[in-house]
Amino acid sequence: MTAFPSRSWDVFLIGGASGVGKSSVAGALARHFGVALAEADDFDVLLEHLTTPEQQPALHYWRTHPDFFSLSVDEIVAVTVESSRALRRGLVAVILDRLEWGRPAVLEGNYLTPELWDEPELRPHVQAGRVRGALVLEPGREQLLANFLGREPDAGPQALRADVSVAYGRWLAAEAQARGFPVLEARPWHTAAQRLLEVAS
Question: How far apart are CA 149 and CA 143, in angstroms?
Fold first, then answer.
C-alpha cells in the first residue's frame, strides 16, 4: 500500500481564470497527497441541465445568448462572476459533504473564487485549516494566447478569450488579496507544482 505525505487540510481549492494551468497543478497536488481530484466546473454543466433559464439565468447565459464575440471583455467577466455566485451554495454543499464523510479532495475550476471564504458555513473549517486553497494567476496576455493555442490548435489564436482571462484573473487576484487568500504565479511554469506543494504543506 502506497504511503502518502501527511497533510493538514481535507479539501484544497484551486481557482484561476481559463488557461492558467489549474488542471495541471491540481492534478500534481492530488497525486502527491493521494486524494481525489474533481473539476468544480462540471457542476455548472450538471446544474444547467437540472434548472431552467428562469431559475438560474447566469448558468444558462451562454445557451440563451450564444454570441460570445458580441460582448465586451467586462461583460463576459461580469457573467462569469455571476455564474460563480450562482454555483456558490452548491459548491459549499459539496465541500461540506466531503468534510462530513472524510473524503479528501483537490477541487479546481474557474468558478472557485475567494468569495467562497465569505460563506458562514465554511468559515469555521477554513479557520481550522480543514479547507484551504490557492489562486493560480497568469497575468500575461501573450502567454495565455500561447497556452490556448497549444491546448486547442484547431481553434487558432483566441484573442478575446485571452483578454477575458487577463481581466478575470485581475478580479480574482483583487478578491484573493482582500481575504488573504494565497496567490500562486503560474510562471516560472517548471516550478509551479512545487510552489503549490509548498503552499499546501
Answer: 10
